[in-house]
Amino acid sequence: MSKKTPLVLGIDAGGTMTDTILVDEEGNFAIGKAPTTPGKEAEGFIESAYDATGIWGLDAKKTFEELSVVLYSGTGMLNTLLSRTGQRLGLLITKGFEDAVLMGRGMQTWAGYSYEDRLHAVTHAHPEPLLPINRVRGVTERIDQFGKVVIPAYEREVVEGVKDLIDQGIEALCICTIFSHVNPEHELKIGEAAQKILEKHNIDIPIYYSHQVRPVIREQSRLNSALIEAYATAKGREQLVNVDKAAKKEGFKHGVQTVLSYGGLANMNYPRLHETMISGPVGGILGAKHVGELIGTDSVIVSDMGGTSFDIGAITRGNVPIDNEPTLDRFKLNLPTIAMDTIGAGAGTIIKVDPFTHKVSLGPESAGADPGPVALDRGGTEPTIGDCDAIMGRLNPDYFLGGKVKLNIEKSKKVLQEKVADPLGIDVYEAAEGMVNLLELEARSSIESIISTRGVDPSEYHLMAYGGSGPLHMAEYSRGLGFKGTMTFPFAAAFSAFGCTTADYLHRYSQSVQIMIDPNADETSRDQIRTQINDIWNELNTEARDEFSSEGHDADEVIIEPFAMMRYTGQLEDVEVPAPQFKLNSDDDLNKLTEAFETLYETMNRSVSRYGEIGFTIMELGLTARVEKVKPNLVRRPLQSKEPNADASKGTRPMYYNREWHEAQIWEMDYLLPGNVLEGPAIIEHPATTLVIPKGDYVYFDEWTILHYEHGEES
Amino acid sequence: MNTVPETKMNTLKEQLLESDRLLKETGHYAGLQELKNRTEDPMKYESLHTNLRSIAVEAREMARRISASPGVREVGEMVVALYTPEGDAISLSTGIMVHVHTMSRFIKWMIQNGYEEDPGIRPGDIFANNDAFIGTVHVPDVMDVMPIYYEGELIGWAGAVAHELEVGGITPGGDVYLAQERFTEGLIVSAEKVGTNDSLRRDYLTRVERNVRMPIYWILDQKAKVASCLEMREKVTELIDDVGLDYFKRTTREFIEEGRRSQLSQVQDLMVPGRYRGQNFYGHITEGKQGILPLSENANLLYSIPLELDVSSDGKMHLDFEGTGSWGYHSMNCTPAGMDGGLFVALTQSMNYEGKVNDGAWMATDMNLPEGTWTNPDSHLAATATSWSLMLPAFGIFQRLISRGFISRGFKEEAFVGQVNSPMVEMGGQSQYGDKFGMALFECAAAGSGAIGMKDGIDTGYVGWNPESDMGNIEVWEQGIPMLYMGRSISADSGGAGRNRGGTAFSSMWLVHNTDQLTIATSEHSSRVFDNAGLCGGYPAPTAHPHFAVRNTNMDQLVEEEKPLPHSLGNNPNQTDLEKYVDGDFEHVEGPYIDKPFKSGDLFAHTYNGGGGYGDPIERDPLDIARDVENGYVTMEIASNAHAVVLDYDEEKNECKVDTKATVKRREEVRQSRLNKAVPVQEWIKSERKKVMEKDFVPEVQNMYKDTLNISEKFEKEFKTFWNLPEDFTM
User: Looking at the partner chain, which of A119, A132, A150 has a beta carbon nearest the beta carbon of B467?
Assistant: First the structure.
């Protein structure tokens, strides 16, 4: 192997496996994999990185010293939320709104549902709250929409409330008051009083203020953001800091970066870490966009199946959909996010058969990385999907993680027999395939649901399947959906990590305002408006450059793009208007800003909906600050013969599929070449992933070494 | 006959007649006995359907971006749909499903009434309507439709409806309960051409700007609807470019025929054929209230709503409202268009949610709406502003009846106690910005649903008219009203008791703020009779809650002294938290609230409705009740009296434990006491007959029977036969 010069290291720590992708200047990839080490994520990170450097025979220390970028994104925080294993929270909220944690918003009972289930009311249900009502305490106070104090905060209620919450052993305290994004005075006052009580009791727990976590209108979303930040990110931050330390210890010269929900990057000290919670899936979307651009496919459905969750998203004609009010585990948030859906489904998904009713259910619990599936022999006792794959011969017991972990097939088989096959009174292999099919069906219906809710016509889209378990199950979860094409990648396991490496350093800074531009405003008031806008942009500009400098970038390299969130006065939705210029020097420049709004508004909403007669309101002023980053490239290689080289063949192995045993041809992924065509029954093995091709289907390697999956007879 | 009508040379009126004839003669929509395009290329067929539906879904999202109304933007009170040239819905967005068929009525009405000649139907025309006798539910539901032309031929209609939060009626808001005739309901647009060349006419906008209290809601909603129609028109035209006009015409009609067939097969799959009967009542307290016009007797109203549902073995459903009461000088009447809408929205939630959701389902059902009753007034002057008052209970029975069908076929998980009324608060006067305003506070769109066969009803997340329920954010509502929320909290016991509990609703309490004049009016209340029953032994949803207000309060002083303030009504039935904490002039009002304006410092509280229960309440898992008590869904009193559980409740810690032994004993006692109370049916009928013979009824009940016996010969005959009454019996 020739000497590589590593450039970017991307790490995606899933619920089960930590995947590393190492990219060099010529666009070569090395994929490392190691079990995620919950609680000690830095260890899994280093092991996974070593695994990757080992493939290229590089010295790990030297590699770290040479690297320009290390990107870490983890689903740890998301999984904490999904599995409801977060902090024990207490909440102080404006008195009278304590029930908000139970009531949620009505729309949370159906948000994210398919068209059919949106109509079919009996399916609607609230998400499970993050804390019980017992740990919510009201504080009398009210501030109105203009930020005026109408009822001052009753401090004694804070004292009583916090004492009670301390008795209940809370690990974090959240504070949310109405209109705190306009005037944070009460949240701060409540926090100060709470802090005093905590100190008096010698208790050191963090306090989360809704106006700091997400300073925007809509109390329910702000409350959700604050609760989720407190619930799921505390452990996450510690992990990230440890990863950063570990990288520096290895010789890395810069700060480790993590990925934000809107596709930007931030360092470990970023104060609003919940913005990174959907970053794992986001990496996949960024990667799909990048690959799509290279190969000329601009409409893509992405599907990522790992050990714990299955994430799906859509890129339509090159447009990555941004959701300003996304749902996270069915909680409504106010956070610009690359739109993705997630369900709990992966190799670690635990199978349950009720011993009395024989009702079968999958997950949402996952065996995760610790103990992991039974086959890993690390103390897992509950049958998982991975165990099913193992006993059916779809996974190579001697080549899991390239042979570093030997799978204990007998143990898996015993557990599946006892806990699944026997209660159901069926053969163990039939049971295993039945469970796997059930999982594939769930994944498939979540793709169908995105087709239906996002109005996607599958015949215009390619499906990209990746994640450690994606290639294992893609044959069935994509069957019969009618996509234009279905693809996966040799580096499928690290595709999300790869995607992250395509991002730029990007932060968003903004401030809520309420600037009304009356159609009949005189010049003096228009001058005041201009000054106010310029001042805010200036402050944000300074803040952005300072923050980038502190992260080790050259302040002069920062590209600033100011924007204004604007609407016709009285409307409820803003349009994000890129400002025509950074400074409004003259009255005409203010006109240019409102014209830019109307032009964009008209493009989005048609000219008939213009209503300039009622004037304009700016609700938020902000800017995005960006520093460009080196990005990896895919390499185009000449096509070879259809027949793979002999050295790619690893013989055959029995594989159970469609209720019978097949003798499957085994191939080594790294030895397959562009142009090769592989017919099922076959299994393509890679240390980090396994692609299963049942009888009748085949796979074609194109010039980018992308694998195109073709179904035989569409069922 | 197996062809789509040759349309090119015919007028729309001829096309409509032909389409009706084909349906009548062949029993198939557009005479389509075969779904040829579906059979030949199912993928292409499904792809067109998916595309058309996503066009509607996306157009609705666009409209929501434009709207200034929290009704549309925040809680989604809108729907858009695509129609055939004859006005049959092909595909639709989600949202207020009730309007898919009302808009159909509006299009057909224009065709039937010669609009092709005068005022003419041309490319770029915009037609609007909120006249319920032409095709909508009530005045606030304003609809806009635009014809879609392809190569000079009208090949369909794009339509959109939004619920307006202010319509300029006798009281502010949209559902103007005080309206007694159409003249006080607000601004009515009767199938009017309001725009040409893709633009709304300036004179029309001027009329709106000068005749409603909050023109920005109506006007921006209207612009939003027109924009979404234009968007649909453009996308549909592009699709026709791809698939060809003939394919489009045939296939879209196949969608409707498929929708019709799938409704029939759903009924066959899910229900046992036969005759199902149910009954609801609705009582409206108006006696002595301000502002009631001299047309009515100023007496309380009580409506009987019987429903007979015939399910035939081929899956057809026939609904018959024979025996219900006559229309009156009040705002609760409904038009056949509204009733169609009620049926359609009920069907989409229970049977017609999958596959081809379109007018096909409606074609597979029919209704008898007896003329002269509230379901079909014989005068178009009748007011319909609060038609939901009677319509929701009417289709609540329908939901219970089909649920019985589902249960009898074993589909218990589909059984749904269903719809409830969720009374709305409307207001107007002087805003916090110093100008005039009007607003319907649409947080009512997230009440409690009835219980479901396999689980509890949905708490604070359901209303009958829009399956995408939501209450919206307080910070958004407060931008539109001069009031501050003091609290928004779960309303304990608002769900009917049952093995599966009815969903609970919430209460809001406001402090009037930054205004000298705020008029509040509320609507849709049945405060003395249950307007929705339970199912399979579940208790009904509780009646509407009374209103509480305090004027001339000492709130300033309380705040100054940091005294406790009221945030909800509390759970003490004998003393509200208002009375507990505040001094001032108290009001306790049953039924719709209408009174002199409020001013800053006054307090007002309003409660929404929950749903009915399912199954015997004493079979409910005691642990679930303990959890309900801790969460505030159920009070200790109801836990003990209705569910017969014995709980050990630590109020301070809010921890509830079940005394299992005592609960078993208590439940056994309840069973025994029920047996002790029971009498044979024959005996009971005998005693009740005596009451009938003696006309031993309160005046409202006697008047109700007088009216229904008078308006329906069939009902009179049945009533007399059932109670074995003499021929000359009169009420």
Answer: A119
How far is the C-alpha of B257 from the C-alpha of B39, rounded, in Å?
14
The bridge status of strand A172-176 relative to strand A89-94 is parallel
How many CA atoms lie within 13 Å of A436's alpha carbon, on the beta-carbon side?
29
The separation between CA B38 and the C-alpha centre of its own chain, rounded to angstroms, equals 35
Q: What does the block give as tokens for B12?
A: 């729309």
Q: What's the pLDDT tens digit per position in A146-170?
A: 999 999 999 999 999 999 999 999 9
Where helices occur in B489-586 by DSSP H, the ranges are 555-560, 577-581
CA-nearest of B443, B473, B446 to B462 is B446
For residue B61 the two structure tokens come to 């999202």
Q: Which has more confidence, B201 or A449?
A: B201
Mean pLDDT value across residues A518-543 = 94
Task: For residue B444, give the chain A residue with the closest CA.
Answer: A106
Degrees to nearest 5, angle at CA A40 with A39 and A44: 125
The half-sphere exposure of B195 on its side-chain side, counting CA atoms within 13 A, is 25
Q: Rounded to an integer, what distance in angstroms lies between the CA atom of residue A330 and that of residue A364?
A: 14
Q: Is A171 exposed, middle or buried (0-12, 13-18, 19+ CB in 10 A)?
A: middle
Q: Which of B54, B513, B653 sits opposite A150 (nearest CB)?
A: B513
Please give, rounded to a whole number of angstroms, the shortest distance from the CA of A433 to a CA of chain B: 28
CB contact under 8 A, A572 and B568: no
- Radius of gyration of chain B measured on its C-alpha atoms: 26
The amino acid that residue A98 corresponds to is E
Q: Cα B35 vs. chain centroid, distance in angstroms?
A: 34
Closest CA to B78 of B61, B58, B96: B96
3-class secondary-structure state, position B336? helix
Q: Strand A322-323 and strand A337-338: pairing?
A: antiparallel
For chain A, first and last CA: distance in Å? Answer: 44
User: Is there a contact between A96 and B509 if contact means CB atoms under 8 Å apart?
Assistant: yes
* Residue whose tokens read 């010789």: A251
Indicate the residue type of B576: T
Instruction: Tell me which of A324-333, A459-468, B257-266 is least confident.
Output: A324-333
The beta strand positions in B373-459, using DSSP E, are 424-430, 436-441
User: Cβ neighbours of residue A544 under 8 Å, at least 6 residues apart?
Assistant: A507, A509, A558, A560, A623, A625
Q: CA B440, CA B172: separation in Å to the nearest integer?
A: 8
Note the ipTM here: 0.93
pLDDT at B573 over 50: yes
